[in-house]
## 1
Amino acid sequence: MKTNLSVEKTDPKWFIEKEDEEFYYIVKNKEYSGDSKLAETKNMYISEILLANKIAEDFMSCSDQNSSIKYIRNSKNSNDVQMFKNGQLVKNLNGQFKIEKNIIIEGNNKFISYLKFKKLKK
């Protein structure tokens, strides 16, 4: 699957630091949008997909995951990503992970949403 590993000046220190995943599944992601709420919504759904695939590698194929993420990233408004809200993914993960960090940074006519999800390995 495709990952974006670009580092920017605005990236918080916690976002760049390497994590030990011996006891936890950890997902860090950042998403961009001209609207802060849309950036956060996109990031939430994409991070949930990434977490679900870490927990169950057979949850989605790489091409399905990349297609879903591309669709979400290209969404122009929150209504475009609503189909993911009621999907089985959200229902299965609901309440099973902790949002460790969640910040939005504004700059250059865009908002960057940073998220860090953490889930205890069983």
## 2
Amino acid sequence: MDPLVLEQRIRNRLIEYVEWVVEYQAESEPRLGMGELLNQWEDFITRPICEANFPSPVFSADEIQSLKRLDDGWELLCFATPKHVIHDSEVFKMSEWEAFVACAAEAALTFHVRGKLPEGMSTQVSA
């Protein structure tokens, strides 16, 4: 597979993830639980975030910085969240949740400047 196509797909999944975080609390029936929401972050991110893992032109400098801020928010939320969450509403009351969602909203805005990239072929994108 073309490495650029793979990076574009990862970018698109990250966009979907930040959108999911922003919308999660408003969902009456979340498709997955809080544990999965938090654990899925590491499906796409190797921590700590290394800029070399998010190459230009697929990722811009602003996008990488927003991912770093989201990762910091994620870490604070995970550290503060009880190991076994019975109800999401427990997490929704936490200031760390609010900060995490705010970081996700900022990341979503940053990524939406350029939007999703095609997944079937590499494209000429500017960072």
## 3
Amino acid sequence: MGPRQVAGAAFRRALPRTVEALETVRVLAGEVAEVRAQLEELRRRTDQLGARVEETAAAAASVRSDLDDARVRGGVADDAIARLVGRADDLDARIADVDAGLEESRRLSLRVAQMTDLVFDRLVASPPPAAD
């Protein structure tokens, strides 16, 4: 056994708690290094997640903007449809008026034709006036 080994053995026998504490320090130093590496990895992941959250927030804002635009366009389209329905109703009313006028015109035309036939029938049936 060399002098160093003898001194180490004597030291271990004399101060067992100190040796145990030194060995614990070595183990703890390794664990601290491992925890630091894990902490660095967690920071890196947190930064990545933060970037993803920002991207997602920007995408959500874009979707909200598109949705608001679609709602506005939908409202404009609804207004246009309502105006077109109103115009169609007006046209239907006018067509009904024209149909009623046309029906009245046909009725009057038929009546005139009947009266004309009656006049011509009477003219044909009546004797010619006497000449003086």
